[in-house]
Amino acid sequence: DTIEGNAAGTAEKSAMTHRNGKVHFMQDIRDLFTAMSQRKSSRKENNIKKSTLEQNKKEKYKKRTDNTASNTMQEAFNHARYEEANRQADQDWEERARIARQSSPQKISEHLANLRALLNNAQAKKAGK
Fold first, then answer.
1. Basic and acidic residues compositional bias: what residue ranges (predicted)?
2. What is the CA radius of gyration of the chain?
3. pLDDT surpasses 80 at 89
4. What is the pTM of this model?
5. Does the pLDDT value for residue 95 go beyond 80?
6. Fewest C-beta atoms under 10 Å: which of 23, 35, 65, 73?
7. What's the per-residue H, E or C state across 49-93?
8. Mean pLDDT of 67-75
9. Phi, psi (deg, nearest 5) at residue 63
10. Any idea what the Cα angle at residue 121 is, between residues 116 and 124, rounded to 5°?
11. Cα(113)–Cα(125) distance, rounded to whole angstroms?
12. How far apart are the C-alpha atoms of 56 and 28, rounded to whole Å?
């Protein structure tokens, strides 16, 4: 309350003493609201601290594991998805290894040259537009 009273008092004084008193009056009102909001936020922080302390004091119970049918189904589904993704990755890796074994260094360099030419053509077309 004293902060609010002081801010209100200074607002009146500044409005009387300054030529552009309206500006100072508004600044003092802003300071008043800032002080009020700071006090409100500090109260909130104190309440939050108190509630967390109360929660920490309470006896902690172990979380009951939920072994419902839907939970088990979800776990099985996730596991199946993981297994499928793993199998696909292994298959892709084997395919890459097979291609690497079949391709000679000369074929690889020709293929890279073709890709580079395609890329250069695409960039030239894009620059031309």
1. 43-58, 78-98
2. 36
3. yes
4. 0.28
5. yes
6. 65
7. HHHHHHHHHCCCCCCCCCCCHHHHHHHHHHHHHHHHHHHHHHHHH
8. 75
9. -70, 135
10. 125
11. 18
12. 42
Query: Are 28 and 56 spatial neighbours (Cβ–Cβ below 8 Å)?
Result: no
Q: Which amino acid, 99? A: I
Paired tokens of 118? 């395609």
Domain range summary for the chain, segments of one domain joined by +: 2-48
Phi-psi bin for 109: left (phi > 0), alpha (psi -120 to 50), beta?
Answer: alpha
Instruction: Provide the 3-class DSSP secondary structure of residue 18.
Output: coil
Cα pseudo-dihedral 76, 82, 88, 90, rounded to 10: -120
Q: Which of 3, 61, 10 is nearest to 33 (CA)?
A: 3
Q: Is the pLDDT of residue 3 over 60?
A: no
pLDDT top residue among 5 and 1: 5
